[in-house]
Input
Amino acid sequence: MDEPPLEIEEADPPEDPDVSIVIPIYNEEGILSASVADLTEKLANDPDWDYSYELILTENGSTDATVEVARNLMERHPELRLLHTEEPDYGLALRRGIHAARGTYVIGDEIDLCDTDFYREAMALLSDGSHDLVVGSKALRDSSDKRPFYRRLATKVLNGLFRVFLGFKGTDTHGLKAFRRETLLPVVDSCLVNKDLFASEFVIRAERMDVEMTEIPLTVVEKRKPSINLFARVPNVLKNLGRLVWHIRLRNQS
Output
């Protein structure tokens, strides 16, 4: 299937940043400005953050003023790059952001999280060469997941399915990640699905390809309700889960 066209807009980000922060956005006009301002301010004032960075907002199919807000933000934030595609597809947006990234390291974040504590801890693990992928897990014992109960339950059920049907050994797949870009690009390119399960497939395939990876705990306090209803995602999640089971477990394609 042909992918929808991609548009890239940028102000004046560093050409060779240490880190590319990639954030898919969809219908985020209500929190986008405040989230970007908060994120950039935290990084500017963090004495332990000593990395140049670009911020890639990878917008996909928004029907509100998200694109206009992002363009206005580019006037105040030269490190910002905007990727735009007409189709609502979280996984495709994340994949394209990773491919467009120019940093040695990539941090995949969510606009309603922007957890700079995770950035700092993950970069310490990546920069010392001990790991190539760090996954922020909402399910670790020391994590604090303050989402509604039904969303915590959905995470537990989905990761349980991954363990049963795909042999996943970790505790979480969807959420914050940091990784060495060149090392993980072959994993990105091996992934088959987009939409909601791309991020999960990425982690599962990295594990199966023996990438040096670890999990660290998260504190999750969301700034708004999910932009896409959880239950509306179920049919596509189940369809793509079946597709992954077929290719990974039954056909043994790592």
